[in-house]
Amino acid sequence: MLSFLEDKDNRTQQAGLTRMRTYATTLLAFVTAIFAFAVWGLETWPWLAPVKAFAEAALVGGVADWFAVTALFRRPFGLPIPHTAVIPRNHGRIAAAIGRFVADNLLASQALAQCLEELDTAGRLGRWLGQPDTRPMIAARIAGSLPPIVYTIGEERWRDAIGGGLRKVVDTAITGPRMAHILSYIVGRGYHHAIMDYLVTEARSFVAQNRPFIHKKVAKECPEWLPLWVETQIAQGVSHGIDGSLAELTSHDHPWRRKFEMFLHETIDGMAHAPFFAQRIEDVKRQVLGDPAVDDYLQQIGASAYAHLMGGAETVETVIEGALREISRRLEHDPAMRASLNRWLRDAAEALLVPRRELIGSLITDLVMRWRTAVLIEKLENHVGKDLQYIRINGTVVGGLVGLVIYAVTSLVRH
């Protein structure tokens, strides 16, 4: 697909260059014909003198700019004229300059970060996945390639691979320092307040829904001689008291919240540095991952995934397309997710590219050096040649106008 797009772009550029070169050459031929006609008919029609001056200067300007443009890429008429074929003679210097430019400018940390920030990769991805034809195409290709691969692996090895992969993910991801980092991120951005608010809301809802149960428990603890209406008043007081205490927790200045935050900071410090925490986490992981029921469950996940993948491309395609649709929707309507993904891509690109920018620059230099000189000329001429043909056109027109001005000034001085 990429090669097709590049070929199409090259053809478009080549067509534009050919069109502008034809315009410039036609204009040069036109002023040449005017100059020849003016020289031929000057004695008969003296009024052709300014026309001759214009055409003569335009011809000189057009030829000079044709020579200058041509000399960049090749020798005019194949003649060994000094300081022509500038690009072929400086192939190595151009390759080194391109490599240095990419390494020192495009891959510099600040420039790369700014470029990636402006690019909005996540937004572009969301819009691309949001196109009606994109999701079915991607889903069909993935769904068509997965079953043969999974079948080649085999069901038993697939189940073992799924189970082993999940075990490895859990074993690698859940460590003391990693858990401390995650918890520190949550606390540092104030998300623990949102968690507390959610727990308080759920607790108040639980109390409201279970008032009869609370009344029953309170009545059971009250003395038998106590009147029923007194038991009811006590039960209602307990319910209201619990609800009121929970309502007070919604204030971020509540002492319990500060104690909760202190507890989280102590936990973070312990997870990051205390051997006891690390050992406790490892013990829990061994207990969980060593449980036969967990092993059976992981095997079931692997078997279920194998059955779904081998159950037919249509089922897999539907699942993949649904996942892509959800990703597209989230990227389009969730600015926080979009910003987070952009930040992750930017950090990943910086971490991957910036430390290796000298290597990348040298690879680009080597790539350009490996191009045949004819290929380098073709690429450069396709990209800038169209603008250079404008220079030829401008040189012809401006040269003619300058010649006309010189003729006018000379005529005024003579008279």
From TrEMBL:
A family per Pfam: DUF445
Annotated TM spans: 21-42, 393-413
Organism: Magnetospirillum gryphiswaldense (strain DSM 6361 / JCM 21280 / NBRC 15271 / MSR-1)
Cellular component, GO annotation: plasma membrane
UniProt-recorded name of the protein: DUF445 domain-containing protein
Signal peptide: none
This protein's UniProt keywords: Membrane, Transmembrane, Transmembrane helix
